[in-house]
Write a structure and sequence with these properties.
Layout (H helix, E strand, L loop, with lengths): L1 E11 L4 E12 L4 E5 L6 H8 L7 E6 L2 E2 L5 H11 E5 L10 H6 L9 H14 L15 H13 L5 E5 L7 H18 L2 E5 L3 H4 L4 E6 L2 E2 L2
Parallel strand pairs: 3-8, 3-9, 6-7, 7-8
Antiparallel strand pairs: 1-2, 1-4, 4-5, 9-10
């Protein structure tokens, strides 16, 4: 489902060159749940951003579901990303002025969906994360765990084949973290969603199918 071949990412300024990723080759199968671990600054989020087509490698290639993404125009890339990928962030990235249902609908605004279709899909996604009774609430009225459930609902509302999660339990206590992890595991098991998760939590990582470790931009396992 995701294939990276000899990927490098270099950030350059007038005086400094920083190697964020060094010769990463990685294949992730359809339906796999992969964890990425490593110390802060090792390139985990950079790798996730490249997989999510939010950033491009300096060298190397990436395929998503056999599509060579470097061949796509910016418009085609945005459409491909919106269809294939769902994103979950540590800090939720919800819009406080929108209620829960409207937050979850957001990715569908970039598709040719009717208002009813958007509403129905968002309601279904919120049901999957156990928040059917919170559709009219605003993010400021929710706990951290509830906000992350909304973020997961937003990620799955467009029925993507791949979910990329950057520290999805990082801001939560252990009980809430386990609840969020259980939702991701169920999505992977019941719907066959391919999931790539960046985490600092060894306990969470060991619940997934495979663990990849990075150190100083290089893959060590």
């Amino acid at each position: 489902m995701i294939q990276l071949q000899n990927v490098e990412k270099v950030y350059r300024t007038d005086t400094v060159e920083t190697m964020a990723l060094n010769n990463i080759s990685l294949s992730i199968a359809k339906g796999e749940f992969l964890s990425i671990m490593g110390p802060s600054g090792c390139g985990k989020s950079t790798l996730l951003n490249i997989m999510g087509l939010l950033d491009s490698p300096t060298k190397g290639g990436i395929r998503i579901d056999e599509q060579k993404t470097e061949q796509l125009s910016d418009k085609a890339l945005a459409g491909f990303r919106n269809k294939k990928l769902g994103f979950i962030f540590q800090s939720y990235h919800l819009i406080n002025d929108l209620n829960v249902l409207d937050n979850v609908e957001l990715p569908l605004l970039y598709r040719k969906s009717s208002a009813k279709e958007r509403r129905d899909l968002a309601t279904e996604a919120l049901g999957k994360v156990g928040l059917s009774n919170r559709v009219k609430h605003f993010p400021t009225q929710l706990s951290g765990g509830q906000k992350q459930r909304v973020a997961i609902a937003r990620a799955i509302v467009g029925q993507p084949e791949i979910i990329l999660a950057d520290e999805p339990t990082g801001n939560l206590d252990s009980a809430m973290g386990n609840e969020i992890m259980d939702i991701l595991l169920q999505l992977n098991k019941n719907e066959g969603t391919t999931i790539v998760m960046v985490t600092h939590d060894e306990h969470m990582a060991r619940k997934t199918h495979r663990l990849v470790r990075l150190f100083d931009g290089s893959q060590v396992i």
